[in-house]
Amino acid sequence: MNMVEVVAAAGLFAAVLLGAASAGAQDAPAGDVAHGKVVFLKEACFTCHGRVGEGGGYEGPAPVLAHTALPFDGFRAQIRNPVNDMPAYSDAVLSDQDIADIYAFVKSLPGPRSPKDFPILNN
Questions:
Q1: Per CATH, which fold does 31-112 belong to?
Q2: Of 11, 29, 42, 62, which one's alpha carbon is 20 to 30 angstroms from that of 50?
Q3: What tens digit of pLDDT does each residue of 62-121 get?
């Protein structure tokens, strides 16, 4: 395979990956941000992940959820069959719609701010 073929194959591979990523993003069900916040607080997700998804260290490091880049299917899988110390939430506790609402809520959060946004850190 010559260099032109390698570059063309790499470009095709990248296009397929980008297409799959955008298709995955489109598969996320519509969620209600306001209801997601209510469920996030009611189910005590904030205990580990912070009230605005900033992460924390309650029982060890909990990931930042604000403005998550995790696709919906991965987010739902973590809630249903979590890794590490997170408890599992069955359908009886959280419906798929509740999870979609929480996902919409954490996606709506601004995420971590740059240190440049804090004047005192720039002196």
A1: Cytochrome Bc1 Complex; Chain D, domain 2 (1.10.760)
A2: 29
A3: 889 999 999 999 999 999 999 888 999 999 999 999 999 999 999 999 877 778 888 888
